[in-house]
Amino acid sequence: MADQMVGKSVTRTRKHQRRSTIRILEEAVHLLRLAPGHLLAYYYIGSLPFILGLLYFWGDMSRNVFAADYCAIASLGMALLFVWMKSWQAVFAIRIRATIDSQPARSFPSRRILPLIANQTLLHASGLLVLPLAALMMIPFGWCFAFYQNATVLEHRQSQDLFTLYQRSWHQAKLWPKQNHILLIVFFFFGLIVFFNLAITLFMLPYLLRTFFGFESIFTLSGINSLNTTFLATAIGITYLCMDPIVKTAYMLRCYYGEALKSGADIRNQLNKLAQKAKTIASLAVLALVISPAAVIAIEQPAIISGSPRSTANTFAVEDLDRSIEQVLIQREFSWRLPRQRMAKDNQKKSGPIAATFEWAWRMLGKGVKTLWGWVEKLFEWLADLLPKSDPGKKSSETGWQNSMRVLLIVLLVLAGVVLICIFWRIWQRRRITPIPVESKAVSIAPDLTDDGLKADQLPANRWLVIAKELLEKGSVRLAMRALYLATLAHLAEHDMINIAAYKSNLDYKRELQRRAHGNHDLLTAFSTVVNLLERVWYGMHNISQPEVDKFMRTQKRIMTFVEE
Asked: For residue range 406-417, what is the model confidence (pLDDT) as tens digits?
């Protein structure tokens, strides 16, 4: 009883330790990459005939006039090809399971052929109806799809009937539903990408053949009309052949880890791999122990045979040994142990660091001068080749124009060199001229008083008063009055009488001032007067007179005085 409880607790604990979806996909791709070439041959032996037959059946039934006469026989042939495909996919899954278990590939027993075909036929025949209905209902599709995949990949047991296969497949389909649905989402979007890539390739391939080889085909003549249902079926079929081996391998890994919750097959396989590695290491260790005494005997044997201990020493070259000892002794970590007289003699042979530096600089300077002189010599040789040369075999009339052209060319080259030197000299002089630092002063930009979104707290009250004075001198009365009003708001905000905000109106400021200065009736009356005059001028386009301007300015000063008191 206690053992059963412990087993149940271990199983319950391991159920939560499921492999992540990314881990399952990585292992599936890794298995297919490392699998031998004949492993995928089992899959395509069964799947490729069915896909080709389905494409032919699709095109023939959709275009042939006499398709109704042999539709039943063709459908029977497609059913047989479907059974053929599912049976070979089960064989492919059996080989995958052997690869996971690190077992050698065994021959498929003949007694298992008929049970395997019967199981795959009876189970997958219902999938042609169940999977479309489950896709329409959406929710049970994940479990149904996993069930039919499991029915294919769980054929590795030698003795199991149809009911046992059904139970095992359904049990594994219910396990880890989150992982199953994430796998379906990944396969769906990855399949869409593969489908679009294949469709574009199939559509562009005839045009590429025509471009590079001049091969005209019915596809290039049809143009966009080639994108028919047969084209889409072909792209879907090739996508299925590319994607389905990965899907089968991923669900095989799901079933493998699901069954390992009770059987511990994953732990056993890991232990077997560790045991194989341990056996290999132990074999190498034993081999090393066996070879080591033999090597020692082989080395010592010539000395024993010769009967003289010097024969072994003679195998080494004396000169090489002395040279190695000298190289070790001159190293820094051993040189301090040598006698001082020898070290002094060695130091006398070597130059000091300053002398060595001057010697190196002199050698580099000599190499540079030689190189420069070589370039100068080549330049003079080139110019000498351009100069006219006297040829006794030619007349002066024949060589006169050639000599003149050569002299003109040399003169032009010299002038071009002089011009280039002057240009480089001017550029160098400009680089040496230091720029004169210019003191930059911040230019204050006056705010746009015509902007309705202008806030009073953008400038202090004193600055608004200066702007209002400047506007009055220019004759801009409306803008000056608004500047005075903004100075009033800024002054009130500086004394915590109001809080300036973009969404507040003049009425909001009046109400806020009444709440905070409800006892100062003179301040409230003066502020109401200022607001009324501003609204008449600003919003009502009222022609204000000079007495009203003076009244507005006096009232604004009174407000600032009341606030400071």
From this structure: 667 677 777 777
Is 101 in contact with 269 (CB distance < 8 Å)? Answer: yes
Number of helices and strands (H, E) in the chain? 22, 0
- Single-letter amino acid, residue 32: L
412-421, 473-482, 484-493: segment of lowest average pLDDT:
412-421
Number of other residues whose CB lies within 10 A of the CB of residue 205: 12
**Alpha-carbon Rg for the chain in angstroms:** 50
| Nearest Cα residue to 43 out of 86, 2, 107 | 86
- Neighbour tally for 527: CB within 10 Å: 29
C-alpha distances in angstroms, 287 versus 69, 278, 281?
Answer: 75, 14, 10
Q: Quick one: tokens of 368? A: 């540079």
Beta carbons within 8 Å of 556's beta carbon, 6+ residues apart: 484, 485, 487, 488, 530
Distance CA 43, CA 63 (A): 31
- Longest CA–CA span in the chain (Å) reads 140
Q: Is 62 helix (H, G, I), strand (E, B) or coil?
A: helix
Of 16, 27, 31, nearest to 178 (Cα)? 16
The residues near 50 (Cβ < 8 Å, ≥ 6 apart) are 78, 81, 82, 84, 85
Nearest alpha carbon to residue 462 among 495, 484, 441, 493: 484
Query: Tell me: the pLDDT tens digits for 54-113?
Result: 988 888 888 777 888 888 888 899 899 999 998 888 888 888 888 887 776 666 667 778
Asked if 32 and 246 touch (Cβ cutoff 8 Å), the reply is: yes
User: Hey, CA dihedral for 182, 185, 188, 193, is it positive or negative?
Assistant: negative
Does an H or E element contain 475, and which? none
